[in-house]
Design the sequence.
């Protein structure tokens, strides 16, 4: 059933919030600035609450069911995070308060920086970037400035494997780097020969997601990093898939120079229907001076009786500020809570169970769906959503049919190097029963593809809306409660 | 902690995979680095973590414990209870980006309504689904303008009265763009609300002019002459707004702005030490295909039912990769929802009243403060909204320290960002401050020399 918009639900004279009366004398805004018209909706509080509750019921969510979106790490978001991040002592602090009034916030941020360094094996961390892509931009600016600072001005080339997320080339292009795609070998690793051919004095760096988006740990990762370093380049690690590595291996130990974290993937901060994320960036020792300004540090050492004073430090060669204030603090509180509740063993348990879950599913499905890279996978794996003898069935049909079984589909059509990709990441928080139910559904759908293909073509059947006309949306643009033609008049 | 596996489950799964132990899954990891044994504190139970976090939070001083006149880009407004109660619905906050429209209509319609509310508020034609914050939205406006002229116009003029952090972020984003000069915010051009010196720098090499409304000091300036001058040179104009002020001020869309950016935090989002907030971004129709970020549009499903989808995705990184308009891959999803609920609850009359209330109280406060000997308004003749600059005869750090003794956060010391405003304090007043609070502030200020 269609839910009207807030503008359609509006009725003159209603209001949902009682604004206090003024207790001061009247002042008049100069007439030339006075706004004539403000046609916001008029609704009662109950109507507003019902409207948005109705909308919420049209969503699928982790709290409702299995959400195996590859590379998105849709793990359970612990409820305690929502309580701690809203504590009045955090929620009611202004970002520009004097240092001595926000020592709790600064202690938390400093400690989180230290924990992230320990988990990843790097020397410095900034918590400022707002999301993964924002972290990439930050990291690439650091790499660029490092070369520039050394007077190494011709290094503009960034190598990006063909399996990478679209944000990698977009982030590098945004700062004027020259993007060169790097092919993968038959086992899904970086093609070493192709890499060697591109390692010269123009190389600025390599952006590497490891495990990559096929869910595979690069078997030559050390060699890849050595080749880039030998040519004078730096290696950027896309931390999208860090969930597989917690307590298993530290990217800094492997030789990566920079890496971003996705706190909204690895450290359970909720995805919020598309954001806010949080994308801290870690760097090796020689890049610490280039971090965004400021970083949180101890400005006065403590003693046995007195706690240290935390404050802001200004890295000497900083790339500058990448957003206002100190990053997505509310997300940092959630990630802190999550890490505190796991400790060393708990973090390793996360990675082990994430990888166990993925391999279990892969083994259950690989005789029915084509598995293009048949190796032990890490936290995710990629199948082909297509069969040679069934040309009419596509990954999209399988994805949509899964909705009828009350599952969120896997990521589809990504990575681009797998034909009709279905990219499945179960995460560690799902039980064997859930994994089995999902595998059963996928096996059943494979059967339906042969016996009742229309069930796939017409899917989904029982969702709030059915397949949507995306071409119409892009052609007859309606981006606002009033159509564009009306605007143009 | 949140892994549901029993020992028996693990055994069944390992057997099914055909391996003996969990360690066997990690043979591809270089052995010398495998299982590093992290040095982290012992894990806490939920109860212990809850205590620990409460104790950390309690060690802060907050805007509830103190009377706060801090603004400078983040404002302490009352947030109706319904806003957060709705945000806590797991169907909203544990959902991903709405790439599968059939099972994401809730998020999609909420963003569509957010876009519509922002267009209504700003007087613009099209809003995206948001950027990270006001500063990054401003930087995206600069990038838009740069691409709009295909790099052929090499100058962006940014007013010195734009939030200093926005200007820093713009410079960070654009540091690698050769042939682009960012100008207009130097001390020489200055802070005079008469914009002649600033306008004089607009030429046919100018891609974008960025101003703030009200400006960083709370001043309301008539930008019409500036916008006319910019358009006469073919340049685009971006206006950074405080959305609360638009409850009573003429919206930038009506005075000719091409782009509106802004910090959406005042619309129902807690201060939370600076984030997560909400980057507003809206344009006039001719620029619609140049916007970065997600946009939701209306369509129909196969049964002809009204539906919402992410649209114009050909601009975005997951399709265009290095040719995308931006690398942005998220929006401030839950924050757009908060602001949509907030604006709907306050509604047509409520939002105007609230906006006006901030104006009234700030003007009362400014009058009272400037009556205290040793304090005066730095821009006494300039209309302002809910923030104003106070010049103190005593050093600002001493004034702030004295006020702290009275549990007052006195405002933002402007000396560091603006050498010409050394000795000045930026004070903000929202609806949460009442007359008695202002009188208490006045009393405390009157005692400054007695310290």
Sequence:
């Amino acid at each position: 059933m269609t839910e009207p918009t807030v503008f359609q639900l509006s009725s003159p004279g209603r209001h949902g919030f009682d604004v206090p009366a003024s207790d001061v004398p009247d002042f008049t805004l100069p007439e030339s600035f006075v706004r004539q018209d403000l046609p916001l909706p008029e609704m009662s509080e109950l109507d507003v609450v019902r409207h948005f509750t109705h909308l919420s019921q049209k969503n699928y969510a982790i709290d409702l069911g299995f959400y195996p979106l590859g590379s998105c790490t849709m793990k359970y978001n612990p409820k305690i995070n929502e309580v701690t991040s809203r504590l009045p002592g955090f929620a009611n602090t202004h970002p520009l308060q004097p240092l001595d009034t926000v020592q709790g916030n600064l202690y938390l941020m400093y400690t989180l920086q230290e924990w992230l360094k320990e988990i990843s094996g790097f020397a410095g961390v900034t918590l400022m970037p707002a999301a993964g892509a924002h972290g990439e931009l930050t990291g690439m600016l650091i790499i660029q400035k490092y070369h520039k600072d050394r007077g190494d001005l011709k290094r503009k080339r960034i190598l990006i494997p063909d399996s990478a997320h679209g944000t990698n080339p977009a982030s590098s292009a945004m700062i004027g780097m020259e993007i060169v795609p790097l092919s993968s070998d038959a086992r899904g690793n970086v093609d070493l020969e192709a890499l060697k051919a591109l390692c010269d004095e123009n190389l600025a760096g390599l952006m590497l997601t490891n495990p990559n988006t096929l869910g595979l740990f690069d078997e030559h990762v050390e060699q890849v990093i050595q080749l880039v370093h030998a040519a004078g380049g730096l290696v950027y690690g896309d931390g999208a898939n860090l969930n597989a590595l917690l307590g298993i291996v530290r990217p800094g130990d492997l030789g990566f120079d920079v890496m971003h974290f996705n706190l909204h993937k690895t450290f359970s901060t909720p995805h919020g229907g598309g954001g806010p994320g949080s994308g801290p960036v870690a760097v090796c020792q020689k890049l610490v001076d280039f971090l965004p300004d400021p970083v949180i540090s101890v400005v006065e050492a403590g003693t046995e009786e007195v706690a240290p004073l935390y404050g802001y430090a200004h890295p000497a060669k900083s790339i500058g500020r990448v957003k206002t204030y100190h990053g997505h603090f509310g997300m940092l509180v959630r990630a802190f809570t999550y890490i505190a509740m796991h400790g060393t063993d708990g973090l390793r348990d996360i990675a082990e169970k994430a990888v166990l879950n993925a391999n279990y599913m892969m083994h259950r499905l690989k005789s029915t769906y084509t598995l293009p890279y048949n190796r032990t996978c890490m936290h995710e794996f990629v199948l082909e959503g297509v069969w040679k003898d069934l040309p009419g069935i596509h990954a999209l049909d399988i994805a949509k049919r899964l909705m009828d079984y009350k599952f969120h589909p896997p990521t589809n059509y990504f990575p681009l190097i797998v034909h009709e990709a279905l990219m499945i990441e179960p995460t560690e928080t799902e039980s064997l029963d859930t994994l089995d139910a999902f595998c059963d559904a996928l096996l059943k759908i494979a059967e339906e593809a042969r016996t009742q293909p229309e069930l796939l073509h017409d899917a989904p059947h029982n969702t709030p809306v059915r397949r949507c006309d995306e071409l119409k949306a892009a052609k007859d643009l309606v981006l606002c409660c009033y159509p564009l033609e009306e605007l143009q008049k | 902690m949140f892994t549901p596996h029993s020992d028996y489950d693990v055994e069944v799964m390992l057997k099914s995979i055909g391996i003996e132990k969990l360690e066997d899954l990690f043979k591809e990891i270089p052995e010398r680095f495998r299982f590093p044994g992290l040095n982290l504190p012992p894990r806490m139970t939920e109860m212990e973590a809850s205590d620990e976090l409460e104790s950390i939070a309690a060690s802060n001083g907050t805007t509830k414990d103190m009377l706060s006149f801090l603004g400078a880009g983040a404002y302490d407004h009352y947030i109706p209870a319904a806003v957060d109660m709705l945000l806590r619905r797991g169907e909203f906050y544990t959902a991903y980006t709405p790439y599968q429209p059939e099972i994401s209509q809730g998020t999609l319609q909420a963003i569509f309504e957010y876009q519509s509310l922002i267009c209504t508020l700003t007087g613009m034609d099209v809003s995206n689904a948001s950027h990270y914050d006001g500063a990054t939205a401003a930087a995206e406006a600069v990038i838009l303008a740069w691409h709009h002229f295909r790099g052929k116009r090499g100058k962006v003029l940014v007013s010195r009265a734009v939030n200093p952090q926005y200007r820093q972020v713009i410079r960070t984003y654009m540091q690698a763009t050769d042939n682009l000069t960012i100008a207009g915010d130097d001390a020489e051009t200055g802070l005079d609300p008469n914009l002649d010196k600033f306008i004089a720098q607009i030429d046919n090499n100018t891609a974008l002019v960025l101003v703030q409304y009200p400006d960083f000091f709370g001043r309301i300036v008539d930008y019409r002459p500036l916008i006319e001058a910019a358009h006469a040179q073919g340049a685009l104009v971006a206006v950074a707004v405080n959305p609360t002020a638009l409850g009573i001020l003429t919206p930038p869309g009506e005075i000719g702005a091409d782009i509106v950016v802004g910090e959406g935090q005042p619309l129902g989002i807690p201060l939370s030490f600076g984030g997560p907030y909400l980057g507003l971004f809206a344009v006039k129709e001719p620029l619609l295909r140049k916007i970065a970020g997600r946009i939701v549009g209306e369509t129909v499903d196969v049964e002809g039912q009204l539906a919402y989808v992410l649209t114009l995705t050909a601009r975005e990184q997951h399709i265009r990769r290095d040719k995308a308009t931006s690398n942005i891959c998220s929006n401030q999803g839950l924050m757009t929802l908060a602001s949509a609920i907030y604006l709907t609850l306050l509604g047509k009359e409520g939002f105007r009243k609230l906006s006006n209330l901030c104006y009234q109280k700030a003007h009362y406060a400014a009058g009272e403060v400037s009556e205290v000997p040793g304090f005066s308004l730095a821009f006494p003749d300039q209309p302002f909204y809910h923030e104003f600059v106070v010049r103190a005869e005593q050093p600002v750090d001493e004034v702030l320290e004295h006020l702290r003794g009275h549990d007052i956060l006195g405002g933002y010391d402007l000396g560091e960002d603006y050498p010409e405003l050394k000795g000045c304090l930026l004070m903000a007043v929202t609806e949460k401050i009442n007359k008695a609070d202002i009188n208490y502030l006045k009393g405390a200020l009157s005692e400054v020399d007695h310290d």
Remarks:
- Chain A has a mean pLDDT of 96.
- Chain A has three domains: 6-56, 82-340, 346-471.
- The domain at 82-340 of chain A is CATH 3.40.640.10 (Aspartate Aminotransferase; domain 2).
- Chain A has 17 helices and twelve strands.
